[in-house]
Design goal:
- This protein is mainly alpha-helical.
- It folds into two domains: 374 residues, no CATH class; 114 residues, no CATH class.
- It contains 20 helices and six strands.
- A four-stranded mixed β-sheet has the order 3-4-6-5, sandwiched between helices.
- The chain is globular.
- The N and C termini lie far apart (55 Å).
- 39% of the residues are buried.
């Protein structure tokens, strides 16, 4: 599964959003300013642009400048494997319940499944930042609860973390959900401590400099995180902007990852399997014995149900499955082995435990080879854009005329920016910028052909660069008013007949 993930990312780490992310970062570095209005389209050049992830874009541009796209993708793949496999594995060994460490076998199996699942959605875009920061926050809070870090050290770290997070991805809101899940879960655990036999680690009282901090540290950390998130170019306005994006129903249905997951896909069937395991383990904790604490339960429950509503959340739900599920399985094994030394999960864990060290060695050797010998493992530098780049290059170098008013689909518009950022496009993949009314008119009236002729007149269009499977491309091909000037297996280009 790790190999499958690496191969998938080598081909598709660059998705249709990457070109404008990279070019925006380059623009900021060159001009030393965050653009206030659009810099890529000829349709809405004066419309204001809320660039809430500007810092990530600058980071990508700097990384690409010094590493190149090839090594940037390689670093991204290694970082993702570290976030979802290597760091959880180390956490399970360090975090371990007092009586026994979590089996590395359980950790590797669950983490590998999670890595395979996220391959359907993860790519080189700001969502990896939210995975990283969610992981760091979870580890920090765990260390705090186990008296490994003091509150007065944790507070400034959380503040700085949210300062960075709010300038790199709106997934910062997921950080608040994780914080609340932790604090509510810990409170419930404290209420239930006398009613259950606890096999999970309970939060310990962390000595603080004052009774006030001791009593109100959840509220203080939430306030600290919120204040940190306001250190961005837009301040509090980021949150109404986020609410407005999520309120646009048509856009949410148009963007595949914002819809509910399709459980015909094997990756989401695997996610259902993990959810089923979680439900079984939760059921085992409903009696007098508690194998999963409330903080762990809330993390898995909340992020699972968010995934059932919005498919892209699976990336972060799987992070918590990789962190939590192996520990809970180990607690069950430890308990039931007392009554049945041949308990099946105990036997499986013991039988395969000897394979984990060679397996980890293979991962580390693979990472070393991946970095040191790049010719062994080829990277597709165009990623999702590869099928349309030939047509884009041909148009820009051979077919483009000064009088062209060209319309494109979102894939071609977005990918055009990879090599030709100064050439304005009709639309790209920044649907949140273009807003629902513009996107809906483009999609319904033109791409789907519902009001085809009127839309062309409205924008005075004379050049059409589209994927061949769109209804608009089929209608253009049938019309005598337009001449086909280019065609390959994926893209067709028409120009209005004189």
């Amino acid at each position: 599964m790790i190999g499958k993930f690496a191969i998938t990312m080598a081909d598709y780490a660059i998705n249709r959003d990457f070109p404008w992310i990279l070019q925006t970062g380059r623009y900021i570095l060159v001009h030393n300013i965050i653009p206030q209005t659009d810099i890529f389209s000829w349709t809405l050049p004066n419309q204001s642009w809320t660039l809430y992830q500007w810092l990530f874009e600058v980071f990508i541009a700097l990384s690409e400048k010094y590493l190149g796209i090839d090594y940037l993708i390689r670093v991204f793949i290694i970082l993702t494997i570290s976030i979802y496999i290597l760091i959880p594995l180390a956490f399970h060994q360090i975090h371990a319940d007092p009586n026994k460490k979590t089996s590395a076998f359980f950790s590797l199996v669950i983490s590998s499944i999670c890595l395979y699942i996220i391959s359907t959605n993860i790519s080189l875009r700001p969502m990896i930042v939210s995975s990283f920061f969610l992981l760091i926050q979870y580890l920090l809070l765990n260390s705090f609860q186990r008296n490994k870090i003091k509150l007065l050290v944790l507070i400034p770290i959380i503040f700085c973390l949210y300062c960075l997070w709010a300038n790199m991805h709106l997934g910062v809101t997921l950080g608040f959900i994780s914080l609340v899940s932790t604090f509510v879960g810990n409170h419930l655990d404290s209420l239930e401590s006398n009613s259950y036999q606890q096999f999970s680690e309970k939060p310990q009282s962390n000595a603080s400099p004052s009774p006030f901090l001791q009593k109100y540290f959840p509220q203080i950390l939430l306030l600290t995180a919120f204040l940190g998130s306001l250190i961005n170019p837009y301040g509090l306005n980021v949150y109404p902007y986020l609410a407005n994006i999520h309120s646009q129903g048509y856009m949410n249905q148009l963007i595949g990852e914002l819809r509910s997951p399709d459980f015909h896909w094997p990756v989401f069937q695997l996610f259902l399997f993990l959810f089923f395991v979680f439900i079984v383990l939760s059921y085992l904790s409903t009696g007098k014995k508690k194998f999963i604490n409330n903080s762990e339960f809330l993390h898995l429950l909340v992020f699972s149900f968010m995934t059932f509503v919005t498919a892209r959340i699976v990336v972060w739900a799987c992070l918590f499955y990789a962190l939590i599920l192996p520990i809970v399985i180990q607690r069950v094994v430890n308990e039931y082995t007392q009554y049945n030394p041949n308990f099946i999960l105990k036997s499986i864990g013991d039988d395969f435990e000897y394979l984990t060290k060679p397996f980890i060695s293979i991962i580390l050797i693979g990472i070393f080879t991946f970095i040191t010998f790049p010719n062994i493992f080829k990277i597709n530098k165009n990623g999702e854009c590869a099928p349309v780049m030939k047509a884009i290059n041909t148009y820009q170098k051979q077919l483009k005329a000064d009088s062209d008013r060209a319309i494109v689909d979102d894939l071609i518009g977005g990918c055009s920016l990879l090599n030709y950022p100064s050439e304005k496009v009709f639309i790209d993949t920044r649907f949140d910028f273009y807003a629902e009314n513009f996107v809906k008119a483009w999609r319904v009236d033109f791409i789907e052909g519902k009001n085809f002729t009127e839309y062309i007149k409205r924008w005075n269009l004379n050049t059409f660069i589209l994927q061949k499977n769109w209804p608009a491309a089929i209608m253009l091909n049938k019309s005598t008013m337009f001449t086909k000037i280019y065609e390959d297996k994926v893209v067709v280009i028409f120009r209005k007949s004189s």
